Structure formats: structure tokens, C-alpha cells
């Protein structure tokens, strides 16, 4: 079952051989559990599984011991995160929910080996072509959680380390919940008998509207995002830009050289960096001054909703915030202009705005497609606040943390904590190939990033 993948950067073939497949359930019997999916969850049914990739240097443990430790820890952590061991179902009224019972198969776990691949090979990978064979469920829609596990994990033995590829069903959890689970799993593997922060599983405490959706899988799942024009989709490239702490500070201080005068707070690190990315991506796209460009951020609403939800809320509690401006205004004004546009949109997204958005969606449910992110869009997901480099299963911190190939489109950006720590940030960007080539040569964008 070897699967060759061509890494175009190195023009050589990576071979990943699947050596085994099993399933992991919670260690304890939990009986039947059901939890209704709510308005914050449902729009993501037509997205793809959310993929995460973590890369570790070798340890003194053998691969078999590492797999055993990860399996054992997974069985323990699933006692609290049992929803990930379940399936998506529907109740008698056709309302989607996540269901668990002890007879379900649980989490899918694949073991693999890539004898000729080193940690350094995968750390150097900018795109996602090579990564595809190390992460399960490429191109699989969340709606397939009706008959597939809601979490699939692939553990691949490398020449000098271990690759962990995870595919999470995005209809049942967001980034905050994803990394809560990952850090809890690592906590157990590192010797703890229980996790320090249990998940808050009562979704209907924040919204209890029952929305019936009549959804079925399309004949070609890719058509849900690309329509009939798949052949016309431009070539996309991904790249990771590593911004050091000093670079981030420079960007932030430049944007805050003229702080807001209307009583708003100074521009945050996120607002400063987002404006920097938005300006330079628009320039790299060679847009006209009169063209419009949309900035979208998938914002955590746990503290924005009323009543506020705890940080350990498990599920989706994110909402897309959109704002737009003309390219000429963005490029010809100083950097703080873009930051102010972003800040105003974020500040306005309060509990009332969230409630109005939910009511509007519930009255006429719409399943998101990538094109809904907006024209000439820059859309930001993930967050440098997630402590991804603290996910230590007992053999050290990861060498690299990446997103997989799913849920990418022209203008999609993922932000991660930088491996060097502090305020450093890794910026994963997907762009049309020509625009990416121009962005790579933009010295004002790179500063000292490369």
C-alpha cells in the first residue's frame, strides 16, 4: 500500500507505506451520549476535515513504544472528549447532532512508515504536496462524519522521528477545542492520570435553536467548493513565512506610530500583522486601485456571546467577521488605515451582532462555500495564541506544526505560534502562483522574515 508523493521542491519521491489500521475507544464504558449541533457548528458541514500535522525528532523509545503510548493516552483522554469517538447523526426531526455509544468503532488510527524521509525533509516543506500522505482524510467533507470517525490519526515512522497527522471533523470543533484536546492528550502521555482542564460539552447553553438542514453528499465532493469550473481554477501555492519576534514588534510599532484618535485601543499584534498581510497580498495580486478586497477573520466568540462561555467550551464557537475596502485606500494610506478597518470590524462584533447573525442564518440557513469569503479575499484562521509547540507527548516539543491541504483557497492564511517562542509568528499563506512569486520578492513584506 505504498503511496508515492512527488515533492516538487526536491524533485524526488517520498514513499509512505501503511502498515496497520486500528480504532481507539474511551477506556471506560460511557453508555449512550447525544449532543445537538447548533448554529455555530452547522455551517461547517460542507467544509473539509480540519487537518493538523506535528513533527517530532526521534526519542529513545522505539516506534512501537511511541505508538503504544499514544494509543494508551488516547483511550484515557477520550473518556472526557468522547464526542471525538462518535459519529454525526440526526434526530427524529432531522436535526444534526453528535452521537456516541460504546458500540461505535471510535477514533481511526493508522500506522505507517516512511523509511527514506527525515524530519528535516518535512520541516523544509513549504507546500502541502508531500504532507498529504502523512495526514488522513484529504478531500473528505465533514458531512461524511455520518459514517466516518470524527477523528482520524496517522502515526508515521520517519528515518529520525515521528510524524503525527490528525484530521478533525470541523462540524464538531474549532481551533480552540482542537488544541485543548491535543494538549490534554499530550498531558496524559506525559504521565498525568487525568487532564487538568475538562471540556465543557453543553453546546445548547449558548444557543438552543433547532435548525433542520436537508443535506446530502454531492456526487463529487470537490464540486461543493469549486463548482463546475474546476478545470479553470488557477494553480495555488502555499508558503510558510516565519516572522521573528523583532519583526513582529517592528510591524506593530509602525502601525501604532499614529495610534487611534477615536478612543479605540492601540492596534493589537493580530490587527497590525493582519493589516500588513492584507496590504502586501493585495499588492502581490496586482489589483487595481478601484478593486475591492475583503478581509475575513474567524473570530473566537467564547467571550463575545451573552452569556459568555468558558475557554474550555468544546465545539465551534467561531464566527467569520467580514470587512472590505478599496485596494487604493488600503495601499495609498499609511499601514494603520488597514489596521483601523480591521479593528473597527472586530470591535463591532459584539453579542448583539452575533445574535443577529445567528437569527439571520437560522431563518434562511446557508452552507458556506470558499467563495463566500469574499472577492480578492484574505481570510485568517488559527491563532498564534494556541500553544502548539507545547504539545509534548514525552519526547520533546514538535519541530514543526502545520495545517494540511484541506480548506485552503486563494487568500487563506493560517497563523501559528513561532517555534522560536516569544512573539514570533509563522504565517501560512495560500495564493495563486504568480501572486505568491511576487510576494516572496516583496522586501517590504518580508522585512527580516527571510
TrEMBL record:
<comment type="similarity">
    <text>Belongs to the plant acyltransferase family.</text>
</comment>
<keyword id="KW-0808">Transferase</keyword>
<dbReference type="Pfam" id="PF02458">
    <property type="entry name" value="Transferase"/>
</dbReference>
<keyword id="KW-0012">Acyltransferase</keyword>
<dbReference type="InterPro" id="IPR023213">
    <property type="entry name" value="CAT-like_dom_sf"/>
</dbReference>
<dbReference type="GO" id="GO:0016746">
    <property type="term" value="F:acyltransferase activity"/>
</dbReference>
<protein>
    <recommendedName>
        <fullName>BAHD acyltransferase DCR</fullName>
    </recommendedName>
</protein>
<dbReference type="InterPro" id="IPR051283">
    <property type="entry name" value="Sec_Metabolite_Acyltrans"/>
</dbReference>
